[in-house]
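Appendix B, example 12.
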Amino acid sequence: MEDNTLFMTALATSILGIILLFFITDEINLQEVGSINDISIDQDITISGKVNRVTQTDKVAFLQIANEKVEQIDVVLFKPEYVMLKEGDYVEIEGSTDEYEGKSQIIGNQVTVR
């Protein structure tokens, strides 16, 4: 294949991909909730707030996050790199909702310290 043809094909595909991403991201709607109990189990969620409590074991960290609009939320982290979090840190956590012993919690997949 000629270099010019390959370049034009790659350029057209890139532009089409960017346009497609623009329309897809426009469809994402964020929803505010007043309580974690209002969210169904196994739903993806992103929360942010202040770390009020950290409890660590060898492989798991348990956080309690306080948020302005939602009551305190329990978060479970299974990745050992998150054990460097401390009380008072402001974090954003992506994960999914779960229920353990009748209480709602979040299983964190990604944590960003702000």
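The radius of gyration is 20 Å. Residues 1-30 form one domain.
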